[in-house]
Specification:
mainly beta, five-stranded antiparallel β-sheet, Pyrrolo-quinoline quinone, 524 residues, 34% strand, disordered N terminus, signal, Methylamine Dehydrogenase, Chain H, 4 helices, single chain
């Protein structure tokens, strides 16, 4: 979504106030139904086995947690472009760059945009040196969009890498660590069906979210259908089985609401800890639901209408964001939305919070826009004295735009089970455990304002009690949760207003961050 930007004042959500909410007031507030109870089992102990980074948010719960110690932010070891033809708009990049994936033996597989509009490939590089091992082009075509959506591959526990192609098909490769290997295809509605009407399917069917892999190697993703197909496809969620068999469910059937037309763009599906349930967000382009589906059959298990905690009206689910569900160790589900009355919560949105069944709404967080919460074990914060076993790390910007906010852009550690007052509403919100302000002044006319945090998912490193976050000022930071300081930072670029980007960590402790269309591998 193009920004409204006056000198040194930046906020991506500003376009929404300029017109995306037309007609929102006429939308009714939908009513969720809990449906059958969703089974909740504790997650298995994290051992660090399998790929170092499976996909968006690292794993199927989007925890962003690692099992190795991060290297210090001493120098840039290697770098590469992730966009060969970046399209700047008033000096900014209106794009969401996809998350790389990394094998257990340190092959970094990076999605790269090759054209000015369409054109994508994946490049597999040695994570230590950046040397190219292999690359593969995709015929993927972007769906209609405002901000360019993310192109996100997935890596399975069996070391198979998947990436999206045209017509809703997936490419995959079983030897990602080798320079030699073949690329094969899988189609969720049938390869034979696709072959009979390839041109029509390529034109009508588009993958619209990052791919998510479960522990058995099944792949989940959202897709849109914009024209007639022989298979009578309708926009919704697809499952591509590890056995080559696919299935799908439409947005309408996932919710029982005829107004629902899509899975929210960029919303990477999330899996429950027992892998039995897949969560995603579905909308009509403005309002919508969080849904829970059986992860094998995709049959609906539960849904909840996503509403603004302050107004009770439908929250805005915007296709130009990249919020995705996060599943906590206790099965609770978190999902970020925008407020219903735009600007009245300073364009911060809300981090909505539900139990695993989606039947019970819990305390929301005071920021949700374009962010996926990361999971922080409570032991990472020595000063924490509460009772929660885990905490949440989120972006906590307070956008300076159109008379709202003050530009005091922060990141935060929140307690999902404790409350405090919200400075921007009368709603009790998750208690702030730690907050820290950005480091680089933004607008001299607004003292205290600092550059925005440009992350949509972070790296959480329990071993060093640190979180690694990227900022629009061009620096990558290590946030030490023991001292609540930034003891390390490294300049990647001179800084640029752009879409929020993921940070990633390899099995050797390299930290990866994207700034100004370039991926940087940082370490000692």
């Amino acid at each position: 979504m193009p920004r409204v930007r006056s000198p040194r004042i930046s906020s991506r959500p500003a376009l929404l106030a300029a017109g995306l909410l037309a007609g929102l007031a006429s939308l009714g507030c939908g009513h969720g139904s809990s449906g059958p109870r969703v089974t909740v089992e504790p997650p298995p102990p994290f051992t660090g086995s399998g790929p170092a980074w499976y996909g968006y948010g690292r794993d199927a719960q989007h925890s962003a947690q690692t099992s190795v110690v991060a290297q210090p932010l001493t120098r840039i070891h290697w770098q590469m472009p992730v966009d060969l033809h970046p399209q700047y708009s008033t000096g900014e990049l209106l794009i969401h760059y996809g998350s790389m994936v990394i094998t257990s033996t340190n092959t970094a597989i990076v999605p790269v945009k090759t054209g000015a509009t369409d054109g994508f490939r994946v490049e597999a590089r040695n994570g230590a040196s950046g040397v190219l091992l292999w690359q593969a082009d995709s015929d993927y075509v972007l769906p209609q969009h405002g901000w360019v959506p993310s192109y996100g591959p997935a890596l399975t526990a069996a070391n198979r890498v998947y990436f999206a192609g045209s017509g809703g098909k997936l490419f995959y490769r079983d030897t990602p660590d080798s320079a030699q290997g073949s690329i094969q295809t899988a189609v969720f509605y049938g390869s034979g069906e696709y072959a009979t009407a390839k041109t029509a399917y390529d034109a009508a069917v588009k993958v619209t979210t990052p791919l998510t892999a479960d522990s058995q190697g099944n792949i989940f993703f959202g897709f849109q259908v914009t024209g007639p197909t022989r298979a009578n496809l309708a926009s919704g969620l697809a499952r591509m089985g590890a056995d080559g068999q696919g299935t799908w469910i439409s947005a309408l059937n996932a919710t029982g609401d005829a107004a629902m037309t899509r899975v929210v763009m960029n919303c990477a599906p999330a899996l429950s800890n027992d892998q039995h349930t897949v969560y995603t967000a579905v909308s009509d382009g403005a309002r919508g639901y969080l849904v829970a589906l059986d992860s094998t059959t995709l049959q609906p298990a539960a849904k909840v209408a996503l509403t603004d905690p302050a107004t009770g009206l439908p929250s805005l689910l915007d296709d130009d964001g990249s919020a995705s569900p996060t599943v906590g160790p206790d099965g609770d589900v978190y999902y970020g939305v925008l407020e219903s009355n735009m600007g009245q919560h300073n364009f911060r949105g809300w981090l909505l919070h539900f139990d695993a069944t989606l039947a019970h709404a819990k305390t929301p967080g005071s920021f949700g826009w374009d962010d996926t919460a990361s999971l922080v074990p409570a032991s990472m914060v020595p000063s924490y004295t509460g009772t929660s076993s885990y905490l949440l790390m989120t972006k906590y910007n307070n956008y300076l735009v159109l008379g709202y906010g003050n530009g005091y852009n922060q990141v935060a550690i929140l307690d999902p089970n404790a409350t405090q007052g919200d400075p921007y509403s009368n709603v009790p919100v998750m208690k702030e455990v730690l907050t820290i302000l950005g480091q680089t002044p933004d607008d001299p006319a607004h003292p205290g304002s600092v550059h925005e945090w440009c992350i949509n998912t972070a790296v959480v490193d329990p071993a060093s009690k640190s979180v690694f976050v990227n900022n629009e000022d061009g620096y990558l930071y290590r946030w030490d949760l023991t001292t609540n300081t930034f003891p390390e930072r490294i300049r990647l670029t001179g800084g640029l207003g752009e879409a929020y980007t993921p940070t990633v960590m390899g099995p050797d402790g390299h930290i990866y961050a994207i700034n100004n269309a370039t991926l940087f591998a940082v370490g000692r």
